[in-house]
Amino acid sequence: MRLQNKVALITGAGSGIGRETALLFAEEGAAIVAADINDAGGLETVQMITQQGGRATYVHADVSQAQDCQQMVRHAEEAFGQLHVLFNNAGIMHNQDDDAINTAENIWDLTLAINAKGVFLGCKYGIPALRRAGGGSIINTASFVALMGAATPQLAYTASKGAVLAMTRELAVIHARENIRVNALCPGPLRTELLMNFLDTEAKKQRRLVHIPMGRFGEAKEMAKAALYLASDESSFMTGTEFVVDGGITAAYVTPE
Ligand code: NAD
Q1: Is 12 in the pocket of ligand 1 (CB under 6 A)?
Q2: Does residue 13 lie within any of the structural domains?
Q3: pLDDT by residue (tens digit) across 223-244?
């Protein structure tokens, strides 16, 4: 087991990448603290883990709220004693997110509050807990759009993921000598609710698919496997990286016919 005796706190654990990661980490021996604003989804994740014989608990937490982030970390330590893995994964892609001209300020503010400030707040309260545990691994979900520009406008989302990547590098450097590693996971386009709701017509899906050399969307389970590597000691000499898992999209100039 690759996460035996570890405790992992996962935000956005009620769906998509967060849920699949919670299930996989639990299979690998970790106790899971599932955080989300979607109580039904989060509780279902916990139920799925406990039915498999794993250990898990749910905490309601809006990652854009400092009090909630403080409370989710406290909940983790109270439930399982220590915290070793912090997966700042919760995020939104708003369907009114657009280009500079057409993105409303409130959509910008909301997106940045959850996607970027949420990672900051997770670290603000999570890092002291990792210190108390003697070190650990932080994984921040960024995106391939932090590395490439897209003609399908989603400016607030793109800016938020750029912030996640930049924060990850600095956090990694600051905490490198405390046995705390910080890496960003940069998924390509995935077949999860978040993107499928945004690309809500077949034409929009095809517009995105032509850019992916593998010719398909990725799966949340494939991100969970990447997160497992970053969480476990197998990646012990990795920190500050942008771990790209994208079906080849960032490597492509022209895709195969
Ligand atoms: P998802 O919509 O399936 O899951 C996101 C989860 O986050 C949901 O359970 C939702 O309730 C939760 N959430 C939303 N706002 C929250 C808040 N304020 N506080 C706590 N939880 C909140 O989406 P997903 O595809 O699994 O996305 C997970 C992460 O991966 C996000 O950060 C997303 O930006 C990123 N990502 C997704 C893709 C993609 O194509 N799906 C690509 C790159 C990066």
Answers
A1: yes
A2: yes
A3: 999 999 999 999 999 999 999 9
Pocket-testing residue among 17, 145, 249, ligand 1, by greatest number of atoms within 8 A of Cβ: 17
Predicted confidence at residue 150, as pLDDT, reads 83
Which structural domain range is residue 59 located in? 7-189+220-243
Q: 3-state DSSP: the chain helix, strand, coil percent, rounded to 5? A: 50, 15, 35
- Is pLDDT of 245 > 90? yes
Residue 188 to residue 244: CA distance in whole angstroms: 8
User: Is 226 a pocket residue for ligand 1 (Cβ < 6 Å)?
Assistant: no
Mean pLDDT across the chain, nearest whole number?
A: 97
CB of residue 189 inside a 6 A radius of ligand 1: yes
As annotated, the active-site residues are 157
List the strands of the sheet with 85-88, edge to edge. 56-60, 31-36, 7-11, 85-88, 136-141, 180-187, 242-245
Using the atom order of ligand 1, give the atom closest to the CA of residue 93.
34
CA of 140 to the centre of ligand 1 (A): 12
pLDDT in tens, 51-101: 999 999 999 999 999 999 999 999 999 999 999 999 999 999 999 999 999
CA 38 to ligand 1: nearest atom: 11
Yes or no: say if 115 and 92 are a contact pair by the CB < 8 Å rule.
Answer: yes
Is residue 98 domain-resident?
Answer: yes
> Is 143 a pocket residue for ligand 1 (Cβ < 6 Å)?
yes
Q: Which residue has the tokens 């497992």?
A: 228
Q: Which atom of ligand 1 sits closest to the CA of residue 113?
A: 18
What phi and psi, each to the nearest 5 degrees, are found at residue 256? Answer: -60, 155
Total structural domains within the chain? 1
